[in-house]
Input
Amino acid sequence: MNQIFASINEFFGFIQPISDAVWNFPTQFLWYSQIPLLGKMSFAVALLLGIGVYFTIRTRVVQTMCFARAIRIMQRRRTSVLGVSPLGSFLLGLAMRVGPGNIVGVTGAITVGGPGALFWMWVAALFGMATAFMESVLAQLFKERKNDEFVGGMPFYGQRILGGGRIVGICLSLAFIVYALFNVPAQTFNVFTGIGMIADTATGETAGRQSGLYYGIAIVLTVSCAWLILGGIRRVIAYTNVLVPMMAVVFCGISLLIILINIPMLPYFLAEVFRGAFAPDALFGGAMGVALAEGVRRGLMSNEAGQGTITMAAAVADNRHPCEQGFVQSFGVFVDTLIICTMTGFIVVLAHLWSDSTDSAQWAMDSASRIGTYLQSVQTLVPESLMAVITIVLSACYCLFAFTTLLGMISFAEISANFISRSARFILLIRVLGSLVFVPFGALTVLAGLELSNLWAITDLTNIIMVYLNIPILLLGAPLVYKVLEHYRRTDGDRFISNSLGIETDYWTETQQRSEDKMESKQP
Output
């Protein structure tokens, strides 16, 4: 078994250098790397940040409309049995956004770019909210009805915007399915890591990969994923509606407790973040561009604004106006980065573990394990009497982060697959591939004692491919979003009829909206 997995790892060995080259382009070139600030940022990161700034300007800072409206929309009572509620869509999107990256990604950004990276994560998130709004409105605008559900997302709006050719949508759908399914083994590994940390802390002993505990995790994880995924999107959403708020509240609650215990150090935290953003410590490269590049990259990869990956969640929602889900998903970017990632950042910055390292090489070696650095930071800031309990709770949150992300990946692959075919057999095939092939594959690699780093490099490569596919489509579709947003501002979110703006859609027709109005009028 080990030999088989080792062969797979070697086979995909060519992916890592390709992934690194694409992600880092064009920072490999001396002439580019010498440009102040910009020279530290890859084209992908600069593109995502630049697009966020551009959309912020063109929408007249749509972010300011998101907060109150998003909360009001999610609190609204449903008037239709179609699709899922705006709140359910928000939580499904948050299940993807709030993942292990909120812990290890933030920790990684700080270990590489210093405390200042957190400031640039905030900046990236604020501009990323505009990008998330744009792609979510397009997802709503071109969603399609499938029985009592909605399907849609990047393949659907991509086909319409790029001329209507079906082959375009099929290619986009296949790209997303590959992206989602190849992310599953990594999240499976993170589930094992979280439960393993709980067991290690509770027993004081490290369980081996061939132990009964790990085999038990593999069985329970595979069975639970299969039961949820094979039950369809509605079953997944029913559980993410419970798991996502629970894990977010518990994680934020524990983090707030740590903040309160260390409240006198809050001014120090803020000073380190702002000082590090503009005058970084030499230990982290000694240049503002390092902090900026790491913060922007990790922030955008955490909240996923611009990748097109959250558009599946945006499309399945039942809304009165396409802009509504834009506000909701934009608010999700704020929650993910400005709240949850900041909680992690506070702990890592306050622990200041790099002060114990004599040089950058030593710090890089010490911080190689991101989750280990995070938990070590936690243990530095809490009383010894609470250390074990808090470590167990945070490890459980880490496990749930990975589990809900795993469910989201497979569910979004299913939604995307509806563009290719809506036959029950084809959709079942996608569910089986995700839950009974890729999840067990990830579990088997853990049991074999391998992490398959080369195979996981595919996820990094597919991430950037999704960005390069989605951003041009957003730019081409932007005029449509501007029209829809202007309609919302002019009518204060009144019923939307796409034909009135010269936009042809499947769902936002006058006939369909009259039907929705009749259904709403019958509500008590």
